[in-house]
Amino acid sequence: MKKHFNINKLDTKEILLITQSLLLGVTIAGRGFFWFVNQERVLNDSEFYVALHEVMPIWLWGFVILVTGIVYTIGAIYVTSMEQNNKYHWFSFIGGGTSSVFYFIMASAGMYNSLNWLTPYNFLILTVWTGVVAFIGGAEIYARRK
Known about the structure:
Elements: H1 12-37, H2 39-45, H3 47-55, H4 58-74, H5 87-113, H6 118-144
Helix pairs in contact: 1-4, 2-3, 3-5, 4-5, 5-6
């Protein structure tokens, strides 16, 4: 018998977690896609991006972040089955951990190369948010190991 997805059977926690995973993942992937396809435009935007480009080409940053955002977004598919398997937790752990490192680097670079204090502040919030998600995912994977 085929199991059909029915949004009416989702509880509030599942809806919130799916929404959070989709929106945060798309936010991360969107920045990565922009950097991947618009390297010259990105480098002309601010010294902040030039500083990141000195560490690694901005298009490569973009590709890594695009993949990270996609991984994080895919986790939303597995929210409803997270009691039966670890797939959601693995996607959260990998996507959240990679994003956390990325946003930490961006927050650090933004301290001295951003237009105002709001840019590194936002990156710091995203660092903590994705880091907490990664920690919870990893802790759940660890707790379930047999």
